[in-house]
Amino acid sequence: MTRLSNKVALVTGGARGIGGGIALGLARENARVAAADIIRPESAEFQTLLQRAKDEGNEISPLTVDVAESGSVEKMMQETVRRFGRLDILVNAAGINFVRFVSEMEEHEWDRVMDVNMKGVFLCCKAALPHLIESGQGRIINIASIAGKVGRFGYAHYAAAKHAVLGFTKSLAYEMAPHDVTVNAVNPGIVKTPMWDEVLTPQIAEQRGSDPETTFQSIIKERIPLGRPQTVEDIAQAVIFLCEAPNITGASLTVDGGYTML
Questions:
Q1: Known catalytic residues?
Q2: Where are the domains of the chain?
Q3: What are phi and psi for residue 253, nearest 5 degrees?
Q4: Is CATH 3.40.50.720 correct for 8-189+231-252?
Q5: Which residues contact residue 169 at a Cβ distance below 8 angstroms, ignoring those fewer than 6 apart?
Q6: pTM of the model
Q7: For residue 242, what are the CA distances in angstroms to 26, 51, 97, 114?
Q8: Residue 62 φ then ψ, to 5°
Q9: How many CA atoms lie within 13 A of 128 on its CB side?
Q10: pLDDT tens per residue, range 52-82
């Protein structure tokens, strides 16, 4: 038994990558987990996650959501509470990213990154608040990024959204403190997820004139003092810690192998 036993957790972006790792991690701590994603539950990726949970003796309940659409978010929240009866933990892990210089960026590209990465956090938090207050000891963990602490060429849109998430986290923590709902953030470093494998690394490799794997390993050596990428398990561990910490709120926990200390 753990302090998360029978707690109900909702993880957005939960079909794969960091969100999927968090959903699995919470399930291992005996939480009752709903994983919501724009990826359909019947997809191969989502099914792989659900089967992995079953193989470990756990169960994850899949949901569909577009976090940038308020109606979709409300439906997700209602379905979570219908299935489980309450909500104790919200993890906002849905996010998108790509490399684009400001001089080349289209307005719709900027808007989509802001809609998913920042507006989505706002919509999910707003929809969850009544249930988290009712819980008595609600927890919100927003997955931000090291891009919320430092700038990097080609990531102005993403960095702006993640800086906003950190500011939002601190302000909401003040608002929710009287209700004993803690609000914190986790800043992942470089985690080898589909976002890196399918989007970021190929784009950076093309710019450098190198192959993707060589490019990724070079990025790790250049930017991370510990010399290794972070894992989804690392991020899940940070989330679980914050879920179990009653006196930490308005904080951001950085898990980056030393990237941002340079």
A1: 158
A2: 8-189+231-252, 190-229
A3: -105, 120
A4: yes
A5: 140, 142, 144, 183, 184, 185, 250, 252
A6: 0.94
A7: 12, 27, 25, 25
A8: -85, 145
A9: 33
A10: 999 999 999 999 999 999 999 999 999 999 9
What SS3 state is found at 125? helix
SS3 assignment, position 181: coil
The encoded tokens of residue 32 equal: 């009752």
Distance between CA atoms of residues 117 and 212, nearest Å = 25
Q: Residues 169-173: what's their mean pLDDT?
A: 98
Contact (CB, 8 A) for 14 and 228: no
Length of the chain counted residue by residue: 262
The encoded tokens of residue 256 equal: 């980056």
pLDDT above 70 covers what percent of the chain?
100
Which structure tokens are listed for 52? 């992995």
Cα separation, 201 vs 120, in Å, equals: 25
CA-derived radius of gyration, the chain = 18
Joined together, the tokens standing for residue 146 give 């090291």
What is the reported pLDDT for 166? 98
- Which tokens is 103 given? 């001089």
Q: What are the tokens at 38? A: 């724009």
CA angle 143, 147, 148 (to 5 degrees): 65
**pLDDT class of 130 with cuts at 50, 70, 90:** very high
